[in-house]
Amino acid sequence: MKKLRLDQALVNRGQVQSRSQAESYIKLGRVKLSGQVVTKPGHPVGPHDKIELVQKELYVSRAGLKLASSAEKFKLDFRKKIVLDVGSSTGGFTDYSLRHGAEKVIAVDVGTNQLHPSLRGDKRIELHEKTDIRSFKPTAKPDIILIDVSFISLCEILPAVVKIGGRKAQIVALVKPQFEVLRHAQDKPGKYLSKGVVKNDTVRRRVLAGFEAWAQRSFLVVDKADSEVAGARGNRERFYLLKSLK
């Protein structure tokens, strides 16, 4: 028999009410196919493949799933590492880091009261709220720096991160095209955004190329990978693994 998309298979088997609900569950890591979590709604499913709905989400936010989609490709080893989480928000990256063996996470965010309650009592987390990374002085030098920021270009953040991590730190930066288009689009960026989403593939490629050209002045681009989990509004984001050249 012909294989179906995972989201359609969930609907056909009566496990969810609609494809949109199926897509949401899949992207949140709440669907297992033959015992393995699958985060792509279009993943092919055979008629005899076992599909399970996971009652509890894997991480405290979708950010954890985003990082999971690239951490394995980048061969990141969090065991006994000190991690700096820039733009920690609810704590998806922090949660992922700790679950994969991080010794300590220094979580920094300009907001307040965003960290998930389940993480607030964890002594391995050093939380700095209402804090701009550009003026932050850490208590320990991080081995891995994770960056997930909004409403600002990474080009404004990375120079400060380099001063903190030095040449040895692995930097994992999530590029969100909607916040880079202002800097890297070659004309008026507003016309490329539809309700905050960069939908034009040509523009997205131009923005990513612009970021890479900027980054290569000061960083080695070790690897890159599109996030398997889209942004909340559907933006297709990309992770970069960087190391400072300075």
Strand pairing plus helix content: what structural class? alpha/beta
SS strand fraction? 15-25%
CATH topology of the largest domain: Rossmann fold
**Strand order within the widest beta sheet:** 8-7-6-9-10-14-13
Structure annotation, total helices:
8
Tell me the name of the CATH class of the largest domain. Answer: Alpha Beta
Q: Which radius of gyration do the C-alpha atoms yield?
A: 19 Å
The overall strand count is 14
In helices, the fraction of residues equals 25-40%
Largest sheet: 7 strands, mixed
Order of helices and strands: EHHEEEEHEHEHEEHEHEEHEE
* Average of per-residue pLDDT values: 88
What is the H level of CATH, i.e. the homologous superfamily of the largest domain? Vaccinia Virus protein VP39
Report how far the terminal alpha carbons are from each other: 57 Å
Low-confidence stretches: none
Domain count: the total is: 2
| Shape label | globular
CATH architecture of the largest domain: 3-Layer(aba) Sandwich
